[in-house]
Amino acid sequence: MKLNLGRFGIIPICISLLTAGSSLSAQKEKQLSFGEQEIFKASRANSPITIDGILNEEAWLKTESRSLDYFYRVEKSTDQQHTDFRMLWDEENLYVFFACEDQYITARERNRDGRPYLDDCAEIFLIPAPDSCHMHFGFELNLYKASNDFIYINNFYQGKNGSVYSYDPDFEVEVTVDGTINDNSDLDRGWTMEMAIPLKLFRGSDRYSRVKAGNQWGFLAIRQERNEVEGRRRITSTIFPIYDIEKDVHQPNRFGLLKFVD
Fold it and tell me: So what's the architecture of 18-261 in CATH?
């Protein structure tokens, strides 16, 4: 998979102010009552989708667009940057698109099953059923397309969680970068990531809620952001609010719902 140092295509990237974003997050938090799940809609793709990291198919423009408005570990005004998130589906794949504003683009991990989540990174967690449960599939990728993919099990043994890292699925991903990686001497514009995740990767676990119009899955979309070339400080943003970020982001009882629509 070749790294594509391209442009963003047609998504406008805008800078989000820290105070405005924080008030928006607080407002959404108040609106979401305990136990209630937000719904995000993914439209059916009725024509082929080319995985190139560019939002150039009409289907992408017709599906729901949502920003990741819940921010964690924010220390500076430049930490809180906009992410546009979209999804599509067809009979073969789930399609995922992240478009991320980013003034300081960084990445270090090159190995599979490493720690791309310490870099600028896009993540999606999926439960092939509408209700929260103790297992979800995870896909985490940085800008070098170093993938940490796994099956995560909450409360695996004696109250501790576990991960199945031998789950190494084949899927498509492409990245575009508008800026320079690991060079903070200039200001970057951002990056995109587009994925096609085959439905066959969920074979067996999806028997109760197959991907078709009207069905729902549990899911969470996450962005990890690292603005300094050195160190491990990072900012996390999510599509739905979660609890204590210092514990982890694997909180299926806080996942929202992914609804498949025509």
Answer: Sandwich (2.60)
